[in-house]
Amino acid sequence: MKEVKKVATGSPWEDIVGYSRAVKIGDTIEISGTTGEGANEYEQTKAIIKTAENVLKEFNADLSNIIRTRIYCTNIANWEEIGKAHGEFFGTIKPATAMVEVSKLIAPEILVEIEFSAVV
Predict the structure, then answer these.
(1) CATH number (domain holding residue 9)
(2) Whole-Å CA distances, 32 to 3, 59, 95, 115
């Protein structure tokens, strides 16, 4: 059995829902759907990616290890703001990605949620 390492960030949702912010098994790291504070999609996306960056440090990894992002947003018309923030971090890394609109996320002020997959 491969070693499993889990990371928590102290989000209240982690205990309520029963999940880890990130799980590493073997060379694969999966970061759960992550949200961030901010007044708009751009700010929230930047905050989310910074959280992922901090989580990756727990595994001695960084954003260059990200191979896939999955972006969920409540208003696809604002995709350019999300894409701009995503591109600031991943412009040269260029992971596979998807961006989809959902009817709503867990709280009305949350406009963006992102999942990350990484390999070390």
Answers:
(1) 3.30.1330.40
(2) 19, 15, 16, 5
